[in-house]
Automatic annotation (TrEMBL):
A GO term from the CC aspect: extracellular exosome
GO biological process: endothelial cell migration
Matching CDD domains: S-100 (cd00213)
Protein name: EF-hand domain-containing protein
Keyword Calcium found: yes
Amino acid sequence: MTELETAIAMIIDVFTKYASTEGSKLTLTKGEMKALLETELPEILSCAKGKDDSEQLLKDLDNNGDSEVDFNEFVIFVAAITCLGHERFANVQ
């Protein structure tokens, strides 16, 4: 697989790994999303302003209001984080 194909597969695998621990395997519950953030994005979580930021993030990502994050909502989050990372590194150079 190409690097991009590998990256896409890894995003799918990470979502599936965490979505498979509680409830529906098609969505991330609040607990699953918190575990994902703590394990997969600890640097970003450490920059959060308050302890309730992960809960606010879940609310912000939950476009359809079902109190869970589906794969489409998760991909939007990954894309937003990727864009922020790109901007940060572009400004460093």
